[in-house]
Specification:
- The protein is α/β, with parallel strands linked by helices.
- The protein has 8 helices and 5 strands.
- It folds into 2 domains: 30 residues, no CATH class; 208 residues, Ribonuclease H-like superfamily/Ribonuclease H (Nucleotidyltransferase, domain 5).
- The chain has a 5-stranded mixed beta sheet with strand order 3-2-1-4-5, sandwiched between helices.
- Helix 5 links the parallel strand 4 and strand 5.
- The relative contact order is 0.17.
Amino acid sequence: MAEAYQKEYGSPISIGKIQGVIHNTDYSWRRARRVLTSPDPEYRRKVELLLDTLQGLKEGERFFFIDEVGPYRVKKYGGTKLMSKDQIETLPEYQKSRGHIQFIAALEAVTNQLTWLFTPDKSAISMVKLLEKLVLNYADCSAIFFTWDAISVHNSKVVTDWIHTHNTTAEGPHIEVVPLPSNAQFLNVIEAVFGGMKKAIICNSDYATPHDMQEAIARHFKDRNAFYKENPKKAGNKIWDKQKFDFDKLAGGLFRKM
């Protein structure tokens, strides 16, 4: 900038002078903000359906946010921790994995209760097992709604056939899927629960076995469920108030705290 000024006006100017001028004009150097976006052509329709379904739940109906997590390697993890000035924490760049764990989970929107299932993979069979568990746990409901990301497992023939068979032949709640728009993970409230778990259980951890990591995760979720049983609160924030939504901004992923 100093070189450009001198070339334009034939007079030198110091870098400090330029910084002072910029500061006095309330301008500053900023990076472009990177936001999440959804290219789904039916984005608005799907979001409106999600909000209408969630906010229109009747007595005996439940709504679940579903997603998969992992795999997490069982190894030493770094993170932020409180340390003295002379203490140095090191993390090996190369570590031998002691195994891995992954799971799928469903967050019930009204009661804020989490149902989870550790699985060997992210297959359609694993998803069906979670759905079976939900149907059993919420057998007294008249209807349950599922929302999940637009990935192939969720739309697989195994999952869709199981739901169809359940709705036509089995007893228990009727199942209805309310799909999220593609690339719209920021609408899935359960992501915040996973983030809290990772910060509390995975960061700064060094579990000896996959079983130890599973036990820690399960204990965290059990404590969370117990807390919200004693302190009832719906899952999510803005997602319960349709009047606060600006669809143009929402499409850019500016509402992180759903």
